[in-house]
Amino acid sequence: MVIDFFHLGAKSISILCKFVDNQLNSKMNQNSQISARRFQREVIFTKLPMNFGFSYLDVFQLFPANLKGLPKTKIAHPHHPMILEYWYTDDELEKVSVDEMYEGLEDIHRLTSVTCNKKDLIMSLLSIVSTHQFFQYSSRDARWGFPILKDDAGTETNTWSSKWCLAWFHWPERPEQLKISEFTSIELELSNFIPWETYYQRPTFDWNLEGKVFLPTLIKAFLDAYFAKDSQTRKSLDSAIASSNTAMEFMSSRKKLAVLSAFTAIETMVELDSKDFVPSKCKECGQDIYKIAARYRSFLLKYIGDSEANKKKFNSYYSLRSKIVHAGQDFQTEKLFSEVDQGIKNKEHLQMAEIVILSKLAIVFWVIKN
């Protein structure tokens, strides 16, 4: 990666990360005392092994799944189960409005609404601040599939047939093992956290299946700053985060969608940062002038790093965005089997990685610095 975010932004980010106090923790403790906590345990996934636990204050924690009867396979795969623990309160359940169509199922609807929203938020925050995907299967994801009934079946697979499959990670002991009344005691290993300056310059994006999950050292500072924001600001942030995470999810398979999602995330942050911006008027036609390109460039220079190299890079990427949106330009490597030379493949691969990282840093650095 050759993004120069060390010129101006890095020092201020590092200073801000050092001044995280206990105000947010105290605020959360005060809020939780209003209503008793009910602890929830879920199974989520990473695409690379995460061999350590992570705990954020008393809000949530994550650690490798090692439960009795947990399904395992010797076959190489990119879906590694993790245990996510968090809590909710009765007050949160009572605030959920229930549509008439769920008459008779009000309690189930409230519980599902609260737990799904909290789980999805935690996974999205972990995904945006890292270069890894944290995910769970959708309850609506069912399809024809070919069950791998044995790890070493060999030619026996020729006798098997497809089955209608649910995307559901289940085993008989699962329901009881997911019941908890408090957080599980876990060991934390600081060696799995990488200085953020190095972390974002050398992202893995789950590409190397022989690698493993690492987290940046600024993750706590980012989470502190995010949860300290007001609800309206967090709503805008959640929109940007969703777009950036979509970019990371599809950057290898649907490049055009990925890069447009990354630019959407950046432009959402530009609007949030300049919400008081008043457009000028064109002297000839009287229409508003929004200066989108200039604001986009100024935002990135402000939060990523102000240097001549960055100015050229940000301008070139905005030009790429315009060609895709307005002229229908595609990546030459958009198709899986693209007949282009390795130089073009490497160039577009680097472009995609840098644009996705820019969308992440636009969010992470803004949240911490504001």
What keyword list fits this structure?
globular, two-stranded antiparallel ribbon, Four Helix Bundle (Hemerythrin (Met), subunit A), 370 residues, alpha+beta, 11 strands, 12% strand, 2 domains, 12 helices, single chain
Would you mind describing this structure in some detail?
By secondary structure, this protein is an alpha+beta fold. The protein folds into two domains: 1-22 and 229-370, Four Helix Bundle (Hemerythrin (Met), subunit A) (Up-down Bundle), CATH 1.20.120; 35-192, no CATH class. Helices cover 45% and strands 12% of the residues. The protein has twelve helices and eleven strands. Helix 7 crosses helix 12, helix 8 (231-250) packs antiparallel against helix 12 and helix 10 (292-303) packs across helix 11. The relative contact order is 0.15. The model has no long low-confidence stretch (mean pLDDT 86).
* Major sheet: arrangement of strands: 2-3-4-1-5
Number of domain modules: 2
What is the H/E string? Answer: HHEEEEHHEEEHEHEHHHEEHHH
The percentage of residues in β strands lies in 5-15%
Total strands: the figure is: 11
Q: So, CATH architecture of the largest domain?
A: Up-down Bundle
Question: What's the level 1 CATH class of the largest domain?
Answer: Mainly Alpha
Mean pLDDT: 86
Largest sheet: 5 strands, antiparallel
Condensed summary:
The chain is α+β, with helices and mostly antiparallel strands and 370 residues long. The protein is 45% helix and 12% strand. It has helices at residues 9-18, 23-32, 90-94, 106-129, 174-177, 196-201, 219-227, 231-250, 255-273, 292-303, 308-327, 342-369, and strands spanning 37-46, 54-56, 60-64, 80-89, 134-135, 142-145, 163-166, 193-194, 215-216, 280-281, 288-289.
